[in-house]
Amino acid sequence: MSVERAGGESLGAKVEEAERRLKQLADVAAEAERRAEAEIKALEADLERERANTGKVREELRLAHEEELAREHEGKEKAIAAAEQRLAEIEAEAEAAERRIEEATNRAAAAEQAVDDERARARESAAAWLRQQLDAIRREAEGR
Distance between CA 36 and CA 30 in Å, rounded? Predict the structure, then answer.
């Protein structure tokens, strides 16, 4: 009976350890996803500010400096090029963030699969141990 209890406690400990690891992995994945979402939101806000700022600058230049438009044209083109470059950078950062989210999701799925596999191994081990106990009990009963 003490062997059975020790084996059950060992199995219980293994299951608890597997559940603890799953929770840790899920927490890590959730934190990574939260950070990635926050980064995407910040990047989207930056992008929106850049777009709004570019539109505002264009309108102010057109209204306030209409007589200087020819002279300011080159400067405005440079500002637009810089804004487009920044926009391209922001879009690249957003794509990188999306890839990181995908990678984190894949890691979380792999971790979940690993936990599922560990649980299956634990169940198989428990079943094998129980079969051995039953066999031992049967042999003992046959011996009497």
Answer: 10
What pLDDT digit, counting tens, does each position of 57-92 carry? 778 866 776 877 566 678 878 888 999 999 999 999
Q: Taking a C-beta distance cutoff of 8 angstroms, is the pair 122, 14 a contact?
A: yes
Q: Which two structure tokens, joined as six digits, stand for 105?
A: 């999701």
Distance CA 125, CA 15 (A): 11
Which domain CATH number covers 54? 1.10.287
Q: Which domain holds residue 117?
A: 2-143
- Three-state DSSP at 59 gives helix
pTM over 0.90: no
Dist. CA 77–CA 85, nearest whole Å:
12
Backbone angles phi, psi at 65, to 5 degrees: -130, 40
How many domains would you assign to the chain?
1
Asked if residues 94 and 41 have their Cβ atoms less than 8 Å apart, the reply is: no
Distance CA 20, CA 31 (A): 16
What are the pLDDT digits (tens) for 19-68?
A: 999 999 889 989 989 998 999 999 899 888 888 888 887 788 667 768 77
Residue 43 φ/ψ, nearest 5 degrees? -65, -40
